Amino acid sequence: MTVSLEEERALDEQRIADFSAQLAEARQRADSLATSLIELNHRAAATRDSRAALEVRQAEATARSGFVRESCMAELKPTT
């Protein structure tokens, strides 16, 4: 069976249309994934900031605890 030039052209145009639709869908998925990645990066940055703030508070509490302990020990030391 031979395919006429018109039929071959129509098949090529259909293939091009199909591939163009697949490409558009892939681009849409890529855009959606990029948006999700941006959101995840923002959330990760916020989490890192929260953790850093927590670590600062922990260091401050540890320093205050040491100061209080030293003060208490100084007060409890008998004066001679």
Characterization of this structure:
With 80 residues, the chain is mostly helical. It has a domain at 35-80. Helices cover 90% and strands 0% of the residues. The chain contains one helix and no strands. 0% of the residues are buried.
Largest sheet: none
Outline, from the CA principal axes? Answer: rod-shaped
* Helicity level: over 70%
Instruction: Give start-end ranges of low-pLDDT stretches.
Output: none
Number of DSSP strand runs: 0
Which quaternary structure do these chains form?
Answer: single chain
- Through-space gap between termini: 117 Å
Helix-strand sequence: H
Number of distinct helices: 1
Radius of gyration: 34 Å
Give the DSSP E fraction (strand runs of 2 or more residues). under 5%
Mean pLDDT: 95
From the helix content, strand content and strand pairing, which structural class follows?
A: mainly alpha
